[in-house]
Amino acid sequence: MLEDDLVYFSTVASAGSLARAAERLGVSQPALTKSVQRLERRLGVKLLLRSSRGIELTDAGTAFLVRSRTISRELEVALQEARDVAGGQAGLLRIGATPAAANFALGSLLPRLIKERPAARINFVSGFSDALLDSVANGEVELALLPLPERMDPNLDMLHLLEDDYRVVVNDQHPLASLQSVSMGDLAGCQWAGSSKHEFARVQLERAFALEAIALPNLVLEANNLPALLLAVSRMPLVSMVNSHAVLPESLPANVVMLPIRSEHIRCPIGMVWRRGYMSSIALRAKELLQAAARA
After folding, report:
1. Using CA atoms, how far apart are residues 293 and 289, in angstroms rounded to an integer?
2. Labelling 86: which of 115, 188, 205, 228 has CA 20 to 30 A away?
3. Same domain, 206 and 273
4. Measured on CA atoms in the order 35, 277, 148, 89, is the torsion positive or negative?
5. Final residue belonging to a domain, choices 62, 87, 112
6. What Å distances lie between residue 276 and 38, 76, 136, 154, 204, CA to CA?
7. Are residues 103 and 25 in the same domain?
8. Which InterPro entries did the record assign (predicted)?
9. pLDDT higher for 179 or 162?
């Protein structure tokens, strides 16, 4: 099949050796040789040459390699789109957002998308950044809105949309509750309720403490969702940190207050993340709407 021949040719070209390419693909060297020869007969040109240094591309092979990779990507898109249509998935958007971005997603994207495509189905999930990035990487979520990490899976792409900031939350009996805003020094020695170790907000918090040469916060409670953190803060003398867009002041527990943080080391760039390769038409439209909303 042409699809297999293109993949085999590209792998041989990048490996520089039939043996290495065969090992990567899990096929025999004779099968690879026949595949390349089949392509060469079809094109009427020589694509590869054997040399003392291994396999080398001819000029025609170099030119065809670029085109073949484009063809392979487009073929993958076409096949996946056909499967989606056949399986009734063409109108399904699988989207996720962290609490920091959920209000933006629900308010700026979904109402307009539903109006444009009334027959569409939307599968919306909320979670912290690390879980959503895993969901995008394994294909469970097609598009995610979250605080953008400094380093990310090379198979994922991202686009910055807007800047958010963080706020400290405490209950109204906590010593910090009487302040108008807090510095990193004010937070030193406090007991914290926080998210998992690799979650973006916690990474940012620990980085800010380190940059200001302040001992890391004493984390006494770890939770994997925002409602649990807010409940813990409302019931115990703990400090936590949330994005200003994650919760509206009126939606906080009655005894919880939200305070600005005075620190140049804590920032929260919000953006969207998706896996490279095929995207459904509804996901592509969602990206366009999110970009337009961020510019507005």
Report:
1. 6
2. 115
3. no
4. negative
5. 87
6. 29, 12, 10, 9, 26
7. no
8. HTH-type_LysR_regulators (IPR050950), LysR_HTH_N (IPR000847), LysR_subst-bd (IPR005119), WH-like_DNA-bd_sf (IPR036388), WH_DNA-bd_sf (IPR036390)
9. 179
| Amino acid making up residue 243 | N
What is the pLDDT confidence band of residue 44, given thresholds at 50, 70 and 90? Answer: very high
Tell me the C-alpha distance between 108 and 120, whole Å: 17
Instruction: State both tokens at 110.
Output: 């979904």
Q: Which of the residue ranges 74-83, 99-108, 124-133, 199-208 has the most confident prediction, judged by mean pLDDT?
A: 124-133
Average of per-residue pLDDT across 90-110:
81
**Cβ neighbours of residue 9 closer than 8 Å, sequence gap 6 or more:** 35, 36, 39, 47, 64, 65, 68
Give residue 90's Cα distance to chain centre.
21
CA distance 238 to 258: 13
Contact 106, 289 (CB under 8 A): no
- 3-state SS, residue 98: coil
What is residue 150's DSSP assignment? S
How many domains are there within the chain?
3
Tokens 């309720």 identify what position? Answer: 193
Query: Is the model more confident about 198 or about 276?
Result: 276
**Which structural domain, as residue segments, surrounds residue 96?**
92-162+269-294
- Give the closest residue to 253 by CA, choosing from 226, 289, 274, 219: 226
- Show the tokens assigned to 206: 């620990």
Per-residue pLDDT tens over the stretch 45-80: 999 988 777 888 999 989 988 888 777 767 766 676
Domain of 53, CATH number, reads 1.10.10.10
- Residues 283, 264, single domain; the answer is no
